Amino acid sequence: MSLVHLRDVTRTVALPDGEDLHILRGVNLDVAAGEHVSIVGRSGTGKSTMLNIIGLLDAPTSGTYELDGVDTTRLGEGRRARMRGEDFGFVFQQFNVFAARTAAENVEVPLLYASGMQLLCRRSIALDMLERVGLADRADSHPGEMSGGEQQRIAIARALVRRPRVILADEPTGALDPDTGRVVMALLEVAARASRAYELYDGVLHEVTDPGTLTQRAEAGNSDADNAGTGGSTGIPWGEASAASAGPQPPPPLPAQVPAPPSGGWPDDTGVTARQTMRAVGRAAARKRESEQ
């Protein structure tokens, strides 16, 4: 049985002008426990939307999504929230760390929603995880005192601290320079160990029979491709999102790098950027919540 099972999943949102934006048009995906899957596509094709659905941050417009045999489309928000906290670890492009909290306090945040020993021993657990990602000596530093690569390591430690069954990495190197990006991906062990690769376009996943071609295209830095997914600085032409089930333990600590500043997004050939897409998703979700109240 697949741990993650999507069938005919669609996601449609209404734009301010009344038009419907069809982000996903029938996604089918199966990910087994312990498997690593990489998904690539131009900015605005729906990679983040699909990961948000898998991570229970969003719900599909139609279709079914089962997590370990449980139909998530039939669950209430309370159960979805518990599963989201227990079963998923998220690594985002822009780190999303709390500026007012130290590195250790950032990693402790998911443990505040745990119980038993995880809650009681959250400080020691957070410190151990920071040591695993090479930040033991920066535990009491605030994000503003750290480089982008170090902040992303905080995010990785936070994603792994509750030992989730599924790790979702949404363009984790997008705001980093090439060298730091390679360090982060080595830390995640997602790119090198991806057993399957897909390309997302026209709202549908298309399996890539030879994942090595994606690496060749990335190294070539295809000037015709859209750089928005990687912040235009990593040399990888298309954005990448990865799903890893039963995620690996972090490898030995790696040296810190100083990142280059991120650049803005570029529209794809439909004229819709990823940021516009997610704004539309946010507005639609807000309208849905208002209608349910």
Report on the architecture of this protein:
By secondary structure, the chain is α+β, with helices and mostly antiparallel strands. It contains nine helices and ten strands. It has helices spanning 47-54, 77-87, 103-108, 116-120, 122-132, 148-160, 178-188, 212-220, 274-292, and strands at residues 4-14, 20-31, 36-41, 62-67, 70-71, 88-91, 166-170, 196-201, 204-207, 239-245. Helix 5 (122-132) crosses helix 6 and helix 6 runs parallel beside helix 7. Residues 221-238 and 247-282 have low confidence and may be disordered.
**Total beta-strand segments:** 10
Largest sheet: 6 strands, mixed
Beta-sheet strand percentage?
Answer: 15-25%
Task: Give the topology string: H per helix, E per strand.
Answer: EEEHEEHEHHHHEHEEHEH
Tell me the distance between the termini: 37 Å
Q: In percent, how helical is the residue content?
A: 25-40%
The DSSP helix count reads 9
Low-confidence stretches: 221-238, 247-282
Please state the overall shape, judged from the principal axes of the Cα atoms.
globular
